[in-house]
Amino acid sequence: MLYVCTANRCRSPFAEHTLRRALAVAGIDTVTVASAGLLPGGAPVPRAGLVVARERGLPLAGHLSRPLADLEFPLETVDLVLVMERAHARELVADHGAPFARVFTLKQFDRWSATHAFGGTRLGEWLDDAAEDRSPAALLGTSATDDTADPIDRPAPAWRTMADAFEQHARAVAQWLAPLRGHDASSSSTPAS
């Protein structure tokens, strides 16, 4: 499973580490979670973000942003890609070859997964079939309602709001992925689930 945002300094690393913790609490150890950004890497989490990460017990103090180009696996092998904005989804599908059925904005996935119970042990293969009913317009449109706001230049309260939303998201995803508890989620070692 891969989270992608613009720079991998704010949203995607917060989402990644929040989900990792939720999966550990749920006893799901077969899912690999990673994050990346669309911009060049090497930048730290902003100061307000580090304050909130420390409050939440997220290990982001040493985080440096990682660009999508530096992933150690091909994007098309990732089972589920959750992006923060529709613009990210458009770029990943159109320019980077990410499979449409496996790319959702985080908010879109939260709605979609609430009505589509996970019914398999191989997430990517299952999504290829289960998500074929999605309209490209639903993901690739221009509405900002599915976007998660970037707190990059905002004070700590904006980061806390984002972190609260990611905690709710992570609990829901961990519950949704409960069928993977104790199963090998993927035959590869990429963030495939």
TrEMBL record:
Keyword set for this entry? Answer: Hydrolase, Protein phosphatase
EC number(s) stated in the UniProt entry for this protein: 3.1.3.48
**Known SUPFAM superfamilies for this protein?**
Phosphotyrosine protein phosphatases I
> Per its UniProt entry, which superkingdom is the organism in?
Bacteria
Q: Where is the Phosphotyrosine protein phosphatase I domain?
A: 2-179
Annotated InterPro entries: LMW_PTPase (IPR050438), Ptyr_pPase (IPR023485), Ptyr_pPase_sf (IPR036196), Tyr_phospatase_low_mol_wt (IPR017867)
The UniProt entry's sequence similarity note says:
Belongs to the low molecular weight phosphotyrosine protein phosphatase family.
Q: What is the protein named?
A: protein-tyrosine-phosphatase
Q: Which organism is it from?
A: Gryllotalpicola daejeonensis
